[in-house]
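Homework help thread (please don't just give me the answer)

Our assignment gives two proteins as sequence + structure token strings and asks us to describe the second one. The first is just a warm-up. Here they are:
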Amino acid sequence: MGIALPGESAECRAARNRLLEREVELRKAMEGVAAARRELPSGGELKLDYVFQGAGADGAPADVRFSELFEAGKDSLVIYSFMFPRDPGDPTPGPQEGETARLPLVEGPCPSCAALLDQLDGAAEHVGQHINLAVVAKAPLPRVLAFARERGWRRLRLLSAAGNTYNADYFAESTDGVQRPMLTVFHRDGGVIRHFWSSELLYAPTEPGQEPRHVGTLEPLWNLFDLTPEGRPLDWAEQFSYA
């Protein structure tokens, strides 16, 4: 069934063939789930035409309505809710000119979210050929943009939801204000915007030994680990930098 690799034994080839059969079935299952997702009925109409803050053409903060996130000819919008809360102890949050962009973890961005966005930044230009992609954080825009500069993000569309209830309305924020990393898809049909899909696995129960990841199929990082004999490293999480 498989290809003959240099130096492998008959026992190894037989085991690889059995694994290959399972990989083929996994591919079929993933494609089946994607097909079932595409067949979902229309979801609820967008609750509000939320107003976000984003960087305008001149780089200055500018109001952006949810409906304005859809470009001509692109009717799907993917939004990732970045766990980057407000700074509750700062009445005027956001680094000022010349200040460091590094933020304490307790008040700053989630390292795991940042790692995912590192990967999505590389894909954003390709993705943008067909769909709209945006990243929403609760933190004020200057803090978000300062962190983006530090990470070297150049392609992601970054928005602040500090002045609206989008995160809370679409389960990217708990009732007590804790930010959650939801991935949400909306679709525009004519002049109507509807919810299409959310990464609800975040809220689904997990079996013993399972990881509670909900966008794992999107992440090259964790999928690359899965290809190795070591597998996913235990007791390890993404960091902003590594010594």
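The one we have to describe:
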Amino acid sequence: MQRRSILSGLAASIIAGAVGSRRRASAEEKPILVFAAASLKNALDEISERWQRETGKPVTASYAASSTLAKQIENGAPADLFISADPDWMDYLDTRKLIKSPSRSDLLGNSLVLIAPASSAVKLTIAPGFPLAAALGGGRLAMADPAAVPAGMYGKASLEKLGVWPSVANQLAAAETVRAALLLVARGEAPLGIVYATDAAIEPGVRVVGTFPPDTHPPIVYPIALTTASENPNAPALLVYLRGSAARAQFQKAGFTALDETR
């Protein structure tokens, strides 16, 4: 009887130890590190939280301008996944063999809008030669840095196509990210700004004045890919999840267009 009790206790200890080991392993599991364009933050945070609830696999996201993130990956940052706001910065990493090319696909699309503070009464029709400089009234046009940040590059391309870039090129408030440009307008520090439609949708401090015609700028495409340096065994599964129906629905709810075209 005593021997049976000892054996039972020993078995219970072994089981408890195994469960504890699994829990510790899960707790110590290395998070999947996602580098993503700043405009994705709200939607991707919600999707990442859902993934973690469903799988128990941790995710950490780092948001910044696509140009900044690409340079960080080039310099050895340990990202597992990269989601860029334009194909050029993904191409930049691809030509340097820093992403796993077979994993790459075009995940999302977006549109570009002109915004003003919510209290502003300004009215403009976006068309060739429209009086953007006059509408600024001596203030500055907030936009992401057109020299490197995708949202700014799209915005500059559109203004050039519409023939108004020369009139505002010296009146820019060039921001580090599109979200920073959004805040400048929301705080009333700039009378007008150019951001993605999805950014304008989450900020009650701004209103959309107009949408830039899609034929005035390159298609706004967000490609996704695994990095070459990634060794996290859970990263490929998260990539599949981000292309799946649950994530697609959340992205669309946030105003993105789901593309998911594999190259």
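TA reply:
I won't write it for you, but here's a hint about the kind of observation we're looking for: Residues 7 and 13 are 10 Å apart (CA to CA).
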